[in-house]
Amino acid sequence: MIQRIQTIFLFIVILLTGVLPFWVNLWSDANGNEIYANNEIMVSGIFYVSAILAMIAILLFKNRKNQFVLNRLNMILNLFLLGFFVYRSLNLSGETSVSEKGIGMLIPVFSIVLLVLANRAIKKDEDLVKSVDRLR
């Protein structure tokens, strides 16, 4: 249902994780080559899975509890991806592999924030439905 705010948040997550990582560089190596998500198979796979989970969460608009759980799973996946980016950029010493961090490393952070906002809206809808059921 497009009129719900969590659908808009989840649609933005789909755009962030499904489209943007392939246009914005994640980092640059020591030679100055820009690394995108399609250069790293695991990273691109995780971005695609995150976009697919957000799409499935949009389609589960009638079952708010499953939508909530699916968004939590997506948050955990994005936290894993963020941890991988931090490990990749901080663990390597000097200028060996990651020379310059790109703006693409912040995509999981924005995605997690939007997923938290979507879960808050889902919780608000669930509470509203429960309060109406109590009045009957």
Please provide a brief summary of the model.
It contains 4 helices and 3 strands, in the order αββααβα.
Characterization of the model:
By secondary structure, the chain is mainly alpha-helical. It is elongated, with a radius of gyration of 18 Å. Helices cover 65% and strands 4% of the residues. Strand 1 (27-28) and strand 2 (34-35) form a beta hairpin. A 3-stranded antiparallel β-sheet has the order 2-1-3, with no helix packed on it.
| Principal-axis shape | elongated
Q: What percentage of amino acids are in beta strands? A: under 5%
With helices defined by DSSP (H or I, 4 residues minimum), what is the helix count? Answer: 4
Order of helices and strands: HEEHHEH
Mean pLDDT: 85
Secondary structure: helix percent: 55-70%
Q: Pick out the low-confidence regions.
A: none
Q: What is the CA-atom radius of gyration, in angstroms?
A: 18 Å
Tally the beta strands: 3
The main sheet comes to: 3 strands, antiparallel
What are the main properties of this structure?
three-stranded antiparallel beta sheet; 136 residues; elongated; mainly alpha; 3 strands
Task: Give the helix/strand layout.
Elements lengths: L4 H14 L8 E2 L5 E2 L5 H19 L4 H27 L9 E2 L5 H29 L1
Antiparallel strand pairs: 1-2, 1-3
Helix pairs in contact: 1-2, 1-4, 2-3, 3-4
